[in-house]
Write a structure and sequence with these properties.
two-stranded antiparallel ribbon; 8 helices; alpha/beta; Rossmann fold; about 230 residues
């Protein structure tokens, strides 16, 4: 018997995720209530992103949320627990933010996870998020970047994060406008490195969309990933 094509497998996996969410709903990261992935009240409390700074090589960028509280926990659930329901929920909000782009884009790509993270988690969450955003927007998506071996950006000193990971383009993008999807922007080093690699492959323009943008120190309402421990 022939194996299902990848799109069918993905649809079946998402259907199974949705069924499990109905039968065994998880806990809202904000209040601990039964909800997948977040209850309406806590979703409404998630703050808009702070203003972003100019990033060299990026002509326009957007974010769905401020990286704190519930939003921070949802990102953690995607990165460290591979929660597909949270991926799709976040992707819808990122896609909505993308509708404000000043010009259309031709293709969506993502910044690959480090080899260390892929080995530990068995999945590239950036790919999952970008493909989910692309489905929401009805846009083409491609693996346009390759990452050299090295540590993840998370947890590194700010000066090292600003340098960004070593990225290389994997295909010619002559004259195309590319949207890079990522989870969080803090210093912007990763997106700057992505733009540099994509433009080296001929991209005419590079834009960026992230789930969240880190607020300036002192402006957060919640510091920890969990605003209330689920019980």
């Amino acid at each position: 018997m022939s194996q299902p094509v990848p799109n069918v497998r993905r649809m079946l996996r998402e259907l199974a995720d949705d069924l499990l969410a109905v039968l065994l709903p998880g806990r809202c990261p904000g209040c601990g209530a039964r909800a997948e992935p977040v209850c309406e009240r806590c979703a409404a409390s998630m703050r808009s992103p702070p203003p972003g700074r100019v990033l060299p090589g990026i002509s326009w960028s957007c974010a769905a949320f401020s990286y704190e509280g519930v939003a921070r926990e949802l990102v953690a659930r995607v990165k460290y627990r591979n929660e597909r329901v949270a991926v799709r929920w976040l992707a819808r909000h990122v896609a909505q933010a993308c509708t404000h782009s000043p010009t259309p884009f031709d293709v969506i790509t993502w910044v690959p996870a480090s080899g260390e993270r892929r080995a530990a988690r068995g999945i590239d969450h950036g790919s999952l998020l970008a493909r989910a955003v692309a489905r929401e927007l009805g846009a083409p998506v491609t693996a346009g970047l390759r990452r050299d071996p090295g540590p993840p950006q998370t947890g590194r000193p700010a000066a090292e994060r600003r340098a960004g990971p070593a990225l290389h383009g994997t295909r010619q993008l002559a004259g195309r406008t590319v949207l890079v999807v990522d989870d969080v922007v803090t210093t912007g080093g990763t997106l700057i490195a992505a733009a540099r690699a994509l433009r080296a492959c001929g991209a005419h323009d590079v834009m960026a969309a992230t789930v969240a943008r880190t607020p300036r120190p002192g402006s957060r309402t919640h510091d920890a990933a969990y605003t209330q421990q689920a019980v």
